[in-house]
Amino acid sequence: MEKTTSDAIAYRRSVRLYRNEDIDNKKVKQCLLNASIAPTSSNLQLWEFHHITSKEKMAKISMACFNQSAAKSAQQMVAFVSRKDLWRSRAKANLKFLNKQFDKPNLSSQLLRRKKQINNYYKKIIPTIYTDFFGVFGLIKFVGVLIIGLFRPIYRQIRLSDMRIVAHKSAALAAQNFMISMAAINYDTCPMEGFDSLRVKKILNLPSDAEITMIISCGIREEKGVYGPQFRVPFEQVYFEV
To answer: What is the pLDDT of residue 173?
Structure first.
């Protein structure tokens, strides 16, 4: 029986040791489908999910993860990859989809304005944010935003380094969707940041512009695979009502 959302969140732990027991590829793939509907900045979906089931690839990636037990004992892995470099094609896909929704006769003036706003956003604003030339354009944008920001609120994350962070945040949201979905069906995961990113990229044949947000190992937990009770700082230290 699938867990409720709250139960799945409570059940999820970073598991460092898995049973030598197969898990269902199709169920993991369904959890990745859940990952793909996570919220994402400007709906650009600048992510890829590399579902690793090959024993040969698993062994190579485990070595690139320093043979930590969470990798070495995993039955499958998923590499969540940030693809900021795909912004053009993803913006084009969004625009095609949205314009199709407006492809109706006798649109109201309100919908016509909305269509114009959408086209301006994906044709002008997105390219402005994601385009740079050896950091020069980024610096010009940064200075311009500082000046405009003296007079009115303005979006300030406009350099490529900012967009890199945005893409990783979106990929991380997708990864959380995945881990909660896995927990809901009694599968376990461990998000790993300890790996040789260059070696993993070569193993997965990723382009140079791709960046790995995290690798998540998958399986069914051994009892000793959860390292003790969960610790969190007191909620009062992190919660602020304003």
So the answer is: 98
The span from the CA of 22 to the CA of 107, in Å, is 54
Biggest CA-to-CA distance, the chain: 65
Count of all residues that appear for the chain in the document: 242
Give me 197's structure tokens.
């990113």
Structure tokens at 209: 């512009």
Torsion of CA 101, 107, 113, 119, to 10 degrees: 30
Kindly state the tokens that stand for 108.
């109201």
Cα(123)–Cα(92) distance, integer angstroms: 8
CB count, 10 Å around CB of 126? Answer: 21
pLDDT at 124: 94
Residue with tokens 């960046």: 211
**What domains does the chain contain, in order, with CATH numbers?**
1-131+160-221 (3.40.109.10)
pLDDT of residue 138: 81
Under a CB-based contact definition with an 8 Å cutoff, are residues 82 and 164 in contact? Answer: yes
**Alpha-carbon gap, residue 164 to 85, rounded angstroms:** 9
Euclidean distance between CA atoms 66 and 61, whole angstroms: 9
* Site of tokens 């900012």: 162
